[in-house]
Amino acid sequence: MSLDVPTALQERAEAGPVDDAEFVACVRDSLPYAWAVINEVAADLHRDGGEFADHTVPPPSETQRGQLLRALASDAIRGGLERHFGVKLAFQNCHRVAAFATTAVNGAAYRDFVSPRGQLLNQSPELRDC
Questions:
Q1: pLDDT tens, position by position, 66-78
Q2: Tally of CA atoms within 13 A in the half-sphere of 27 that contains its CB
Q3: Whole-angstrom Cα distance, residue 59 to residue 15?
Q4: Mutual orientation of helices 32-48 and 62-73 as an angle, nearest 10°?
Q5: Residue 123, Cα to own-chain centre: how many angstroms?
């Protein structure tokens, strides 16, 4: 299961749409490691400026790695996080998370990061089974 959904939120979802703030709070509480990583890269980007900021440190455990995978593999979760933090997220291997300025999405740095070449260049034998 990706998210620990409180009963009240589940009931609201069954009745109709829920707002982003409630959804993002559920993501934050359910996936704390993923939240921390994405919060960090978004804060770095907003503080330092530029086109993007990234996190390249492998997670300390498979549990944390799983959180990143669940957060970034779900269109709904990723989209909610992007709207909340005001960034475009990108992901390589099982742990490299980047936050791009929304104005940089059509730029060379973003295209390079999400390209097949970018993925191939970010490989190493120790990451083969991540």
A1: 999 999 999 999 9
A2: 28
A3: 37
A4: 70
A5: 19
As to burial, measured by CB atoms within 10 angstroms (0-12 exposed, 13-18 middle, 19+ buried), residue 98 is buried
Of 93, 67, 60, residue with least CA distance to 81: 67
Copy the structure tokens of residue 114: 């999400």
pTM beyond 0.85: yes
Could you give the CA distance from residue 15 to residue 86 in angstroms, rounded to a whole number? Answer: 28
CB atoms within 10 A of CB 117: 11
Structure tokens at 97: 């998370």
CA–CA dist 90, 118 (Å, integer): 11
Name which of 4, 21, 10 is nearest 67 in CA terms: 4
